[in-house]
Amino acid sequence: MEDCAESIEVSQISGYRLLFKALSVIPITHYVIALYCVFLVFLYNFLELHFFEDLFSGGSVVNLTYHSGSELYLSVVSKCKILHTRYLSTPWLASPHFHTTLIELFGRPPAFTYKRELFHASDGGTIALDWLMSSNVLGSPSDETNVIPKNTTTPIVVVVPGLTSDSSAAYVKLFAFKMAKHGWNVLVTNHRGMGGVSFTSDRIYNAGWTMDIRDINNHLREEYPDAPLYLVGLSIGANIVGKYLGEDGDRVPVAGAAVICSPWDLLIGSRFIKRRLVQRFYDRVLAIGLQGYAMLNEAHFTKHGDWEGILKARTIRDFDKYATCVATKIETVDTYYRWASSAGYVKGVSVPLLCISSLDDPVCPGEAIPWDECRANKNVVLATTKHGGHLGYFEGITASGLWWVSAVNEYFDVLHASPLTHKQKKSQSPGHCTPEESLIDQSPYVTVTNGMVAPADVDEDLTENRKFF
């Protein structure tokens, strides 16, 4: 028995020796090629590339979610060809991370100059409004003074940019140029403290502060009573627009709206952005951008925030803790996120609203999208794609265009020509919760299990009156 065991052991050792000898015969270049192939497979999956998927499928199907009796879909969206075709990404940018991080490098519009108007909000704050008139782009000699006549009937598109972005952002300028070239006037509302304008009141902007866009729309309605107003929100601006539309219902003085890559539920987004290494990278980059915003307005944030905490902030949540919550007197970051989220306001939207989101958005997760709420509201159509990143959606071999820009352009064009255009009237300031109120005991709580967020059971009357998610 011992001799047999020794024989087996010797046989095994001899087998390994033969294996190692065979491996040593293989040229080193073959090992290098194999390791390179493994690295490419890892990189392809890590960057979530979808080049081969697009190659064989022809691109991402645009899935539309809407109420079965939606007049918005029947009268408008059903006639939008772009929303009924596939989105095909630029082949060499077929990754949500390329779409998101390279937005400032590709798809740039021709150079143009905005006309600036300084708007004074109801609380004394100053907001930079940047105009791009259609006459500037089309070269019309009819508006040599570069002033919009009070009796104009040309539609006005109001754009609310994303976090730390202003009118100079490439995706904002591309959309503005596209709409102006289409014959519409465009107004970009810069957030407070941005666009080179300092603070003139105590308030800073945040994801749930809707009074600024309310004041601006009321101002535009008074100045240009015959011009249809349309509203577009991008990223955090989409959350602001969605919340505003839900708060004011049929009192908003706009004909229609679109929200692109909205975070919808900030609490879910806050959990999501910590899950993976790549998400934490975005969290850090956005936090750096917010710190830069604070440093541009150091005197204001030193007075109204925790300046030492702001300088130490490493995440968006840190910044919101030391800046947003302190400045707006909200007790906790979770309370702020619950109050600011637009998902709970979808049911109150009373104007035609198109929502566009990508399911591979590395910043705003698909799980935060209020699918059922969008399906239940006849005034809302939700368009989702499997790919597109965050505010990217590059298309064409040269990445010269953004798919969502063309989709929104067509949507507004069809909506404006339809009988569904919302009857505009002067908006009144409705009662709504303001950040000065103590929110910690008012907001319905949520239960968190394994990083997932779900609404807790609350009294229906309380939910309706407070309008919190």
Automatic annotation (TrEMBL):
Transmembrane segments: 28-47
Coiled-coil stretches: none
UniProt keyword annotation of Membrane present: yes
Any Pfam family: Hydrolase_4
Entry annotated with the keyword Membrane: yes
Domain (Serine aminopeptidase S33): residue spans on this chain: 155-265
Alphabetic keyword roster: Membrane, Transmembrane, Transmembrane helix
Domain of life: Eukaryota
GO MF, one example: monoacylglycerol lipase activity
Active site residues according to the UniProt entry: 235, 361, 390
Protein family membership: Belongs to the AB hydrolase superfamily. AB hydrolase 4 family.
Stated name of the protein: Embryogenesis-associated protein EMB8
Phylogenetic classification of the source organism: Eukaryota, Viridiplantae, Streptophyta, Embryophyta, Tracheophyta
